[in-house]
Records
---
Amino acid sequence: MTFKGLQPIVYGGREVWPLIEGGKGVSATNHMSSGAWAAAGGIGTVSAVNADSYDAEGKIVPQVYDQLTRKERHEQLIRYAIDGAVEQVRRAHDVAGGNGAININVLWEMGGAQAVLEGVLEQTPGLVTGVTCGAGMPYKLAEIAARYNVNYLPIISSGRAFRALWKRSYSKVPHLLAAVVYEDPWLAGGHNGLSNAEDPLKPEPPFPRVKALRDTMRAEGISDDVPIIMAGGVWYLREWEDWIGNPELGSIAFQYGTRPLLTEESPIPDEWKDRLRTLEPGDVLLHRFSPTGFYSSAVRTPFLRSLEARSLRQIPYSRVQAGEHTVQLDIGVKGKNFWVTPADLERARGWHGQGFTDPLKTPDDTVVFVAPEERNEIREDQAACMGCLSHCGFSSWKDHDDYTTGRLADPRSFCIQKTLQDIAHGGPVDNNLMFAGHAAYRFKQDPFYSNNFTPTVKQLVDRILTGD
């Protein structure tokens, strides 16, 4: 029995359910999950963010970066990304068996995003129905979609962001705009489009924001038949009953990022799946430690807690004696141009006594105190940078021009490629970044998952279609 009011939409020339699998990122969504989602009649999404390739025996090919320079390692990364995503798309298409549709998802702020996207589309003609893209302002998305004749679905978090994209670029390719994904910046997992004008601690309800997005789209002459896809915090469709068929909002579809993680076909390791069953409200933290500079939402594992603690062990300094900065930092630093307040000097000495003996400078004229082994890991990870982002705060890499952001590398952040590859391929959950949406605590509360039940994707989609 299908939930009342929910109707199929026409996408890519066929009828599909208005249920979209969120693309997620590094190896957290692959051909098995996305192909199965399409086979169930929805829109599956292959992550084209450093996807896995396979050898002749079907084993995952480790992504080893053995070149000497960051630029050469960045070129390796692009090759890995294209090869992996092409393989995933082809396999997903086979799994789908002609049902539903297959999208690919890219992050505009990933390193070499344009080269990766073009490389994948070049080798997968007729297999990709659309491209979802967020994490930044992907102005070139429309022109790339036009070149390869695929649909595009920008991911935004406000009507204002969409208007800027439309005015500058998308209005030139209106016929391929298949949908607009509204990703709730307070509820979605992964990187969030929270602007400086919005308070991370004061979430805004999605309905007025989506209504404002629809009003913006109408003002630009975009048909109500172009769906807005609600992403972030979606669990039971019955909780969105007043959205379905609502003339104020026009056509609405729903994206699921977190729920597909706990399925048979989900490629994430069992430890990650098991941890999802244990989460409580508030266990997912909206934070700003990501080297992208964006806010992002992840489970508050010991890894994330250590980043929080690292930033708390931080004091500002001046290069000259000025204002309240009247004493010199006398531990762990070379030279005498570190002037701090007397209170901060005492805090620094306390941290030093606890074993956090190594102060590291940040781009913001502060120092953070870390243990020697932590300093060594930070330095090694920064040196091993393979350019996975267009701009990386952690390593000061930039993927164009002179290949540097010009800013000091930031020790308060971390190598995101390293940790996401590790957790996706069996590394310990506690030692890594574990992305999840803020509704992930509902796994523990939802009777569907009782007795450690793990559904297939088909069972999950069928369940969602009932309203639950």
Note: The CA atoms of residues 7 and 17 lie 7 Å apart.
---
Amino acid sequence: MFKLWLSIKKDTRILLRDKVGILLMFIMPIILVVVVTSIQNSTFELVNKNKLPILICNKDTGKASVQLIAAINKIGMFKVTQISKEKEKTVADEMHDQDALLGVVIPANFSERVSAKAKNVSGKALTSFGLQADTIKKEAGGIDPLTLYYNPVLQESLRFSVQGAIQSALQLVESRQTLRTLYFSINEKPLPEKLENEMLSSQTTINMFPVSKDGVRTTPNASQHNVPAWTIFAMFFVIMSLGGSVVREKISGSFIRLKTLPTSYLVGLLSKQITYLCVTLLQAIVIFSMGIWLFPYIGLPALNLPSDIFALFIVTLVCGWCAVSYSICVGVFAETQEQANGFGAVSIVILACIGGLMVPSFAMQGLAKTLSNFSPMHWCLQAYYTLFLEGGKLKDVLNNIGSLFIITLIIQFITYLGLKRKNLI
């Protein structure tokens, strides 16, 4: 025990001398957490709170186009600005000038075509009801399509949402006109506005709730997503210090000298794991503390810790141990410190990509989806998400912890084989 304590003191002193490594392990993840959370929170606010600026060029002079513009404005996700119909050819330029993300051109015959389609549909309905003879000689022409311009920066999912919203507004205008025409054909008088509103607004309500294992319904925010993810990234980035430390000890002959001393190589490896495991726990404490207390002061949503703090500690401990084991493994197989740092940094980024830190796992397909199961970061992230986003308990993350534990043991075994092959033990 005394030998282990001395070895831990030695590794701690070596770590404190590595100023660059400490900066990479703490400062870089802190900057990443703040920057990425700020960007994602701005995106969330753009979609959920702010309105998308949209320009509408109305070439039509009828009532249907006015109703369409009112319906688009009523959706609540657009900030509508109308431009002169003479500017149809310069809608793209107007979008750039006014920083608009969307532009819509309503064709000149829009109201006429909507009215013709409504008469055609109502006529067919009356004929099927047996209320009038079939006097329809030919089908009414379709409505000329709206022209929708969009800024290329809009993601595909957001474009589909915009298209669906405008399509709903268009459908409302067509349904309103068809209902009015049908009512007038039957009663020979205009449809009362109150009845029209009642018939068109009688929609089934949809209640949306996030999935929660503890029954507490809380809406996740950008901090809940990003703080755990980049904490994992910070843990694995101890490779920049630990991997280089292992390489330096190999080159200096420390492992060989251990053979001549009344001690074991296990003491040295265990001391490194304990020392850097404490570093990973400190990283988690620092980043989580920032999310809880600093984020509200810089305009970001506060991080809400899960109710099961013990489960959070266990997950953090296992994640840190896996990160430390991987770092030692890379250091054992690397021949130089440059190799350890270069391969370590690139491999961490790759593991983060396929593990779901940069691209959500549910968006992956095929080979990428399969490879994500082999990334330790994937299991770390799933465990954290279960606790932070779903309100899970320790029993809910045992599967993730078990998978992560198996991966860690495999890495430890590969490290042992590397030490044996290099005759370092």
Note: The chain has a mean pLDDT of 79.
---
Amino acid sequence: MKVLLVAILVFLINLPFGALRGRERKYSFKWFLYIHLPIPLVVFLRIYSDIGFALYTYPILIIAFFGGQLIGRKYFPCKQKDKKKTEADCL
């Protein structure tokens, strides 16, 4: 049950980062940063929730991580068509 709750939190944490990543040029510094910034939060959640680093938790949380990134990119598009739009307008 804890793993499912942590997976949902990981998914929700990655939604805004996926939206921000979607507006950046692929392989740029910010694109790379938006992928890797949530990782310390995920590690903190793993430690705080006492699920630890058991082998069976990795596939579940990896799917939640990249699922949040992909859904955030697709459903919260942040493509800047006009220059007046800011990062806060995307979310």
Note: The chain has one domain: 2-79.
---
Amino acid sequence: MEEILASIKRVIAQDGTAAAPAARARRAPSAEPAPTPEEEDVLELDDPVTEESGLMSSDVAAASRERLAALSAIRQRTEAPADAGALEAVVRDMLRPMLKDWLDEHLPEIVEQLVTREIARITGRSL
């Protein structure tokens, strides 16, 4: 996992002008130059991961599945309230479309800000 993150950091850190000649060189099959040491370090993600060559141990995978199941159970409990009063049901039905509209309007911007902040934190430079 750390190898993948290091590879992603290197790719992000590379200057756009350095990436363009490398891309052109990969497109020209007849005259491919030898890869530079930086290109050799890049991890290609085109091979599918099989169960035998998993990226994490079986203990970590099991723990992740348990956490996802717990999150799913929480969601199911909130979607099917037990003996909610009539007023709560009416309010919930009224709020659902309002919440959906608000999320449709604001969620992409929130996600973009969080991803940008995380990339800046990882790379050490602001975007």
Note: The two ends are 24 Å apart (CA to CA).
